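Q: Hi! First time doing this. I have a protein sequence and I read that you can turn it into a structure. Is that right? Here it is:
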Amino acid sequence: MVLRWDLPHSEARRPSRIWKKPSNGKNCPDFAPIWSKCSKNYKTDAVLLRRLSNKRNWDWIAEVPSWVPSGDIPSAPLGCFNTSPDSKISVWYVENDKSNLERIIAGIAAGRQNAEKFDYVLFPDNLLSEAEVKSEEAPGKSKDENSNAKWHRDLIEISATKLVKLVELVSRQGEIKRSSEREVISLIRKSLDNGAIQKTGLHEYLSRRLFEN
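A: Yes, that's right. Below is the predicted 3D structure, encoded as structure tokens:
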């Protein structure tokens, strides 16, 4: 499932209705996503992944509550970008062709107790500069050690203001996605087969589910 912000062709309410005319002469709302044809950043290579602890926190995107002021968002999505005690947020770097996406998902999902659906958001890394958020390479904590070393990033020095700004940008320009339980099991098995994940590191319940007949 992918939720995106499309150009409004009806009277449906959106977080902002401010319009501006870009250099290409087309009308484009100021919250148009980067893949929108009227956006100057239509193409981008670097994408970041953040696992979502509760996808329902993002359900409001389909229909913004009437009590939310224009240009604002509900607070619920902030819970999926909770920071560590030292004000860091764990994210993963996804190659422009998404060739490492399935492996990243498998590594993270393999660290859980059970085989469950996996919800996440993909967003362009240029949102970090817009939110004035810094990032650094840091070891990840998934069950795929190679992925941990190559593709994990920490967003650092996150203040409350920066956090709200980042989540606001992600809610407008990100892709909310879900891998089903069946897909997750398949991805973990694939990583086990190619040696990216070791069976000995899996939780007993998850291992039993993966190898049941």
